[in-house]
Write the structure tokens for this entry.
Amino acid sequence: MIDSLFSTIAPHLCCGCGKIGTLLCDYCKYNISSEAHFECIICGNKNYNSDLCEKCHQIIEHAWCVGQRTDVLRKLIDDYKFERVKSAHKTLAELLHAHIGQLPASTVVVSVPTVASHIRQRGYDHAALLAQTFARLQGLRYRPVLKRRTTTAQRDASRSTRIQQARLAFTASAALSPNQPYLLIDDIITTGSTITYGVKALQAAGAGRVWVAAVARQPLD
Ligand SMILES: [Zn+2]
Ligand SMILES: [Zn+2]
């Protein structure tokens, strides 16, 4: 609502180059989605010249991440999550779509469940909206089978607290197929613990092939 009102008064400017008309122009979208990066998407291990380190590859078959949460990606995600720019979900989903390419038709898209208080604050479920829009772009099925067990928010929690919370956080609401690929989508990967325990919850429910996609990885410093 706020976003649609705002965009009728002032049109969006491209986060990358300032061009009027969209949140991210096609040129900047292409530049961001095709940039190469060399560290493990899940744990941030820099010693690997591929998307997953050996340890993370043992539980996750494939992983994709558009880039680091810096510059343009940081602005887009922060607008989406914290400034109520709801329409950014489309741009973020398009970035993921361009980065990943077309997935097999049997792939099921799953989102990391959002803390209920965050949905109330924003007025929308940012993770579900991103995953649904991505599924639509790919022509894939979206199934929100992952549920949250606790309601503890982790934005300000320490690393060890986050890992502890994430371990208890998820469970799958249905039995899953051992053959179909499940693509678990999150917006940002920070420690990798949330997504890893999400993957494990899907596997515990019977999923045999679990893939992961995120828009950005938080730089570790
Ligand atoms: Zn641009
Ligand atoms: Zn790793």
Notes: Residues 40, 42-43, 45, 52-53, 55-56 surround zinc ion (ligand 2) (CB under 6 Å). Strands lie at 62-68, 108-111, 141-142, 146-148, 170-172, 181-189, 209-217. The radius of gyration is 17 Å. The chain is about 40% helix and 15% strand.
